[in-house]
Design goal:
Strand content: under 5%
Shape: flat
Largest sheet: 2 strands, antiparallel
Strand order of the largest sheet: 1-2
Number of helices: 4
Order of helices and strands: EEHHHH
Structural class: mainly alpha
Distance between the termini: 32 Å
Radius of gyration: 21 Å
Length: 136
Amino acid sequence: MTEAPPPEGPAGPARPTRRARRRGAAESLLSIVLVLEAMSLFFVMLVVNGRGLLPTGVAFGGGLGAIVLVLLVSRTLRWRWGIALGWLVQLGLVACGLLDPVMYVVAALFIAIWTYCLVKGTQLDRMNAARFGPQP
């Protein structure tokens, strides 16, 4: 028997679907941490502006720039250099403590979460690779 050709839509023949890349546990967990940091940076930006620690333009411009940067770094975590950039984001969060000392506590919490997710995610990735073999 022969198979019928795929049905044609209004734009021509249907394109084959591309299979999504499978993300590892470490990449997923670390990207979640960075997105949570980006959300907390939004509130840091509001606090810095509300307390008058920086001029309004600098507070909002720098805050939005930092948020975009953190979200971009969260997309690079599949590579080793992306994880190194993630560590730089953690150091940047510590540097926010120079503006408001409460940020030292927030940074310590995020660094602890980042480290835990990195260690456990790597362990899960190794365990899955041993169980199922390397994923393409």
